[in-house]
From TrEMBL, chain A:
GO terms for molecular function: dolichyl-phosphate beta-D-mannosyltransferase activity; metal ion binding. Its EC number is 2.4.1.83. Its cofactor is Mg(2+); Mn(2+); Ca(2+). It is an enzyme of class 2 (transferase). This is Dolichol-phosphate mannosyltransferase subunit 1. The keyword Manganese applies. Transfers mannose from GDP-mannose to dolichol monophosphate to form dolichol phosphate mannose (Dol-P-Man) which is the mannosyl donor in pathways leading to N-glycosylation, glycosyl phosphatidylinositol membrane anchoring, and O-mannosylation of proteins; catalytic subunit of the dolichol-phosphate mannose (DPM) synthase complex. InterPro entries: DPM1-like, Glyco_trans_2-like, Nucleotide-diphossugar_trans. One of its GO terms (biological process) is GPI anchor biosynthetic process. The lineage of its organism: Eukaryota, Metazoa, Chordata, Craniata, Vertebrata. It catalyses: a di-trans,poly-cis-dolichyl phosphate + GDP-alpha-D-mannose = a di-trans,poly-cis-dolichyl beta-D-mannosyl phosphate + GDP.
Automatic annotation (TrEMBL), chain B:
The chain crosses the membrane at residues 7-23, 43-62. InterPro entries: DPM3. It comes from Periophthalmus magnuspinnatus. Pathway: Protein modification; protein glycosylation. It is found in: Endoplasmic reticulum membrane. Keywords: Coiled coil, Endoplasmic reticulum, Membrane, Transmembrane, Transmembrane helix. This is Dolichol-phosphate mannosyltransferase subunit 3. Stabilizer subunit of the dolichol-phosphate mannose (DPM) synthase complex; tethers catalytic subunit to the ER. GO terms for biological process: GPI anchor biosynthetic process. GO terms for cellular component: dolichol-phosphate-mannose synthase complex; endoplasmic reticulum membrane.
Length: 250, 92
């Protein structure tokens, strides 16, 4: 795969990509994810901006974000902090309000989603004019790193059950590395009420309901390098509840 | 129509068809062999679906890609990024 494009960077039909990065205690990871985003957007030549939505992290994430803004410029790094943790859905609404791009990437800031896949998302979106492109761990070269057998079984089992019950037309429902057309994300976020894992699932299920077209890019998911990754009983219970709610209401 | 309703409709149609043949509800005078085959059918379907599910999930767990290469690449890029960011004046 060629990492560098031969075509000139300007143009691309005037498309601009806004990356929404909701953060909470990501002081270690934020500089790294921003560095990688700048690297891959820079190499591919697409117009972009990174919007950091920090929910009042006590570890000083915002202060690090300010330093990054000084380094990379206020046109590339936008800071749109909020006073306290208010949930993913409202973070996206908050971010979209301040985004100037006509396309929006959402991804985790904890380095589990690698920006190297961004050019593939964009290429696939352009090829078929998809309304949204979703990263998938379950197809093609996609996969995970850092998961034990138990985690893999829960993940595959939950995914199978969801596929059977909801037939959502996408293979990775709980993943959160996605590219949306701006107005598609706006209309979906308005409708989604779930929290946590189920929020991403509801976004895809509602997208199918509204007949949006969905493309998929296989991604490698490298589980949190810094910080704790959790999948306990509580997560599983809330996942099942969310699944059944969607089953009964969509 | 919600997925729940779709499922209920599907299950009802199958159950009605099964009951018609198994208990000859419409007095169709079907041969006995039909009835004998139809009678345990729901259990067979359930068991085969269970087997299919287990096999599918098992196969997918076994073939779940371990992205060792991606993890290594990331670690190297983290080193590179930290060095570069330090040069650019970032204080961690």
């Amino acid at each position: 795969m060629s990492s560098r494009k031969t075509s000139p960077p300007s143009g691309h039909g005037g498309d601009k990509y806004s990356v929404l990065l909701p953060t909470y205690n990501e002081r270690e990871n934020l500089p790294l994810i921003v560095w990688l985003l700048v690297k891959y957007f820079g190499e591919s030549g697409y117009d972009y901006e990174i919007i950091v939505i920090d929910d009042g992290s006590p570890d000083g994430t915002l202060e690090v974000a300010q330093q990054l803004q000084n380094i990379y410029g206020e046109d590339k790094i936008l800071l749109r902090p909020r006073a306290k943790k208010l949930g993913l859905g409202t973070a996206y609404i908050h971010g979209i309000k301040h985004a100037s791009g006509n396309f929006i990437f959402i991804m985790d800031a904890d380095l589990s989603h690698h920006p190297k896949f961004i050019p593939e998302f964009i290429r696939l979106q352009k090829e078929e004019d998809f309304d949204l492109v979703s990263g998938t761990r379950y197809k093609g070269d996609g996969g995970v790193y850092g998961w034990d057998l138990r985690r893999k079984m829960i993940s595959r089992g939950a995914n199978f059950l969801t596929q059977v019950l909801l037939r959502p037309g996408a293979s990775d429902l709980t993943g959160s590395f996605r590219l949306y057309k701006r107005q598609v994300l706006e209309s979906l976020v308005e409708r989604c009420v779930s929290k946590g894992y189920v929020f991403q699932m509801e976004m895809i299920v509602r997208a199918r309901q509204l007949h949006y077209s969905i493309g998929e890019v296989p991604i490698s998911f490298v589980d949190r390098v810094y910080g704790e990754s959790k999948l306990g009983g509580n997560e599983i219970v809330s996942f099942v509840k969310g699944l059944l709610t969607l089953f009964a209401t969509t | 129509m919600t997925k729940l309703v779709e499922w209920l409709v599907g299950v009802t149609v199958v159950l009605v068809g099964w009951a018609v043949v198994s208990f000859d509800l419409l007095d169709l005078r079907l041969p006995d062999t039909y009835r004998e085959v139809a009678w345990p059918m729901p259990l067979y379907l359930l068991v085969s679906f269970g087997c299919y599910s287990l096999a599918t999930v098992g196969y997918r767990v076994a073939t779940f890609n371990d992205c060792e290469e991606a993890a290594r690449e990331l670690q190297e890029q983290i080193k590179e990024a930290k060095e570069d960011l330090r040069k650019k004046g970032l204080k961690m």
